[in-house]
Known about the structure:
Elements (H helix, E strand, L loop, with lengths): L5 H13 L3 E6 L4 E5 L2 H4 L6 H21 L2
Amino acid sequence: PPLEEDSARTALADAITLTPGTITVEAGEESFVVHALDASLAQGIEGSSFVKLLVQLEHWGKSREKGAGGQ
């Protein structure tokens, strides 16, 4: 996933594990190891709306940090 923050990667790993039929076995900086009962359950994780939302939250947080630093 294109996520930079540990908290965002943790949220994604938790969301995957909470999805019936899937479990996140390992969450690294560049990739996750996900076991699924069916291959279709693991398809499309990278482009999911939840990943897109987490990326937006990361960008929002960075822009807030830059704004706070200038005050």
